[in-house]
Backbone:
């Protein structure tokens, strides 16, 4: 499983999303794992919960 620093995740968030869609990514802070980013499909498979869109529109979609 790939690991990235919190700083790297912040500065390359789009890339983090792309990578997490392929496989879970561990985000580390001060060298310690703090969260795992994973695709919605994988989260739903693991938890049995459905994730629905928030219904909020982005500013540029109004």
Residues:
């Amino acid at each position: 499983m790939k690991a990235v620093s919190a700083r790297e995740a912040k500065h390359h968030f789009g890339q983090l999303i792309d990578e997490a869609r392929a496989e879970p990514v561990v985000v580390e802070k001060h060298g310690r794992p703090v969260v795992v980013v994973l695709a919605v499909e994988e989260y739903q498979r693991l938890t049995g919960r459905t994730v629905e869109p928030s219904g909020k529109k982005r500013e540029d979609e109004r």
